[in-house]
Specification:
single chain, Rossmann fold, about 100 residues, alpha+beta, 3 strands, about 30% helix, 3-stranded mixed beta sheet
C-alpha cells in the first residue's frame, strides 16, 4: 500500500515511528500540565504546518487552555525576506 502523500516517491527511511511520536507528545502534554497547573494557558501554533501537532498536543494537556494560531508572512523578495509579520488574536496589533 502506497502513502498518497509521497506522490509516488519511494520512502527512504522512517526517522520516528508513529508510536515514538505519540509517546513523546504524551510526555510533552504531561510536562506542560505539570509546569503550568494554574492560570491562563494559551497554546500558540504557527500556521499552516503545526495544526496537526498542536491538536494532538492539546489533547494530552490535562487542564483548561485556549488554542490560537499565528500566521507568518514575509514581505518583499531578497532584502526584505527577514521582515516577518505575525497575525493572531493573541498578538498585540501595536507590535506589528
Amino acid at each position: 500500500m502506497t502513502d498518497p502523500r509521497l506522490e509516488g516517491q519511494k520512502l527512504k527511511r522512517v526517522a520516528f515511528t508513529e508510536e515514538q511520536i505519540a509517546r513523546r507528545v504524551r510526555q510533552l502534554g504531561d510536562e506542560i500540565t505539570a509546569a503550568y497547573p494554574d492560570g491562563d494557558l494559551v497554546v500558540l501554533g504557527l500556521l499552516k504546518g503545526s495544526f496537526i501537532f498542536v491538536s494532538d498536543l492539546v489533547r494530552q494537556v490535562r487542564r483548561s487552555l485556549q488554542v490560537d494560531f499565528l500566521v507568518a508572512a514575509s514581505y518583499g523578495a531578497v532584502a526584505a525576506a527577514l521582515a516577518v509579520g505575525m497575525f493572531g488574536a493573541h498578538v498585540p496589533q501595536d507590535r506589528l
